[in-house]
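Final report, section 2: Outcomes. Of the targets proposed, Probable inosine/xanthosine triphosphatase is the one most frequently requested by collaborating groups, and we therefore present its record in full.
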Amino acid sequence: MRVAVGSGNPVKRDATERAFDEATVASESVPSGVSEQPTGHAETRTGAENRAVAALDAGAYDFGVGIEGGVASFEGSDDLFLVMWAAVTDGETTGYGAGPSLRLPDRIADRVRAGEELGPVMDDVLGTEDVAKKQGAAGAFTGGRMSRTDALESAVTAALAPFVSELYR
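The predicted structure is given below as tokens.
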């Protein structure tokens, strides 16, 4: 089975490899079609879907996977959360899944609300570079108890549901 993940980010590829059994996973750098800092569940989910479709179309693949991280609020709360969505498609069926949602610390949420992107804010706060290709915000917010790969794997696994469970047929 050949799977393409719509990103050149090694963390997203690792998460996809973990979610798929016995698959060859390739990275295809494709656009998300959404803003650099997706805001809200709808935009974040759309970015994942766009990446999945573009990844599938990029070559001779059985599945395309799109993963998108964003920030969103939940109804009834003023807090801002890191959210992650995944989409998996075979060209006919598309599955969607979300990963864990982690509340952003106020000082980080304030900067994101002011228009900064979460990745560069995290790099600044942590004094590092490319946190999105390492532990990610999820790893930083959980004290290393959950890596970005772990969080994204759960989203991809959830998006695989229509392909692995008879309940969707």
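The chain is about 40% helix and 20% strand.
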